[in-house]
Amino acid sequence: MSDLFLRRTPDATTADGADADLARARDGDNAAFTRLVESLRRELHAHCYRMLGSTHDADDALQEALLRAWRGLARFEGRSSLRSWLYTVATRTCLDLMETRQRRAVPVDLGPSSQHAVLDAAPRTDVAWLGPYPDAGLDGGRASPHARYEQREAVELAMVAALQHLPGNQRAALLLFDVLGFTAAEIATMMNTSTTSVNSALARARKVIAQRTPSRSQQQTLRKIDDGRLREIVVAFSAALENGDADGLVTLLTRDVTWSMPPLPHWYQGVDAVMDFAVRVPLTGCGSWRHLPTSANGQPTVGCYLWNADAGRYLAWSINVLTLDGEKIAAITSFIGSAHFAHFRLPDTLA
């Protein structure tokens, strides 16, 4: 992606009272350690997600990393900032987890698109799927406007999906250098390697990312759309599904739109194929829908609920992340599964 990363300089300062909390934490004060890491928890979690492509895996990685940091705090000598040290621990934890887990995939990784709706498709349970990321809170704290923009840009679906095609060392080097602003020398120390190796990993990683991501990021696209107009697009998309309105839906889509639904392996490309699927499945074949707006991966998103007669309620069904090209929808990624909703703090059911 062009201009994807707006580099940030790692914060080498400590907040008032941090030194005292560090001393207490080294003496075994868990509350002091919690205070030390609390302001960094959100950005560390996002880093783990970028590395691993799964919110669930990011939860596990962050928990393990903070446990390692707590146990190894006596080894932190203060030669770098606490933030730098915690990123070292988190990155190494993610690299360890990657050795035992599959890389995260999206349906386009598995094969060509389908030209017509595939009915009664079975989920692929043998694939580790990329998951959506709830980005609420990424804008928080004392981050600068550039940093807030960067935080959202670096978790976009296209970027995180592309990162999964990189070996662990390249993935870590790219994120630490281009996203988080660490120097090649610092990264070499963090990863127990040489500066030459880091620079080589960066060159290789950037080549893959350039091939697998669009030239314009979603943040660049969204900045050109008025907030009111963006809400209109999301509302129109939701209304088209709720009303079974094929004509209304097709007016929202680009000609080369894609629709994928992990964990279902089939995906569709082009307005004809997408509409064949839409008309035969969500618009007429599923039943009644309701939607709640949210945000995932720095992109407009809707939580989709499907009517269940036995329950007498609408049940959580999928998190639909929209990718825009101008004011048209260029991709719909429906992450099917009620388990996603808890991360977005969305209800399990609607009346």
TrEMBL record:
UniProt entry tagged with the keyword Membrane: no
Residue ranges annotated for the SnoaL-like domain, each copy included: 234-331
GO MF annotation terms: DNA binding; sigma factor activity
Keyword DNA damage: no
GO biological process, one term: DNA-templated transcription initiation
Keyword terms: Sigma factor, Transcription, Transcription regulation
Domain RNA polymerase sigma-70 region: 36-104
Pfam families hit by this protein: Sigma70_r2, Sigma70_r4_2, SnoaL_2
Residue span(s) of domain RNA polymerase sigma factor 70 region 4 type: 158-207
InterPro entries: NTF2-like_dom_sf (IPR032710), RNA_pol_sigma-70-like (IPR039425), RNA_pol_sigma-70_dom (IPR014284), RNA_pol_sigma-G_actinobac (IPR014305), RNA_pol_sigma70_r2 (IPR007627), RNA_pol_sigma70_r4_t2 (IPR013249), RNA_pol_sigma_r2 (IPR013325), RNA_pol_sigma_r3/r4-like (IPR013324)
Subunit (UniProt): Interacts transiently with the RNA polymerase catalytic core formed by RpoA, RpoB, RpoC and RpoZ (2 alpha, 1 beta, 1 beta' and 1 omega subunit) to form the RNA polymerase holoenzyme that can initiate transcription.
UniProt-listed PANTHER family: ECF RNA POLYMERASE SIGMA FACTOR SIGG, RNA POLYMERASE ECF-TYPE SIGMA FACTO
NCBIfam families xrefs: PRK08241.1 (NF006089), sigma70-ECF (TIGR02937), SigX5 (TIGR02960)
Descriptive protein name: RNA polymerase sigma factor
Source organism (scientific name): Micromonospora sediminimaris
Biological classification of the source: Bacteria, Bacillati, Actinomycetota, Actinomycetes, Micromonosporales
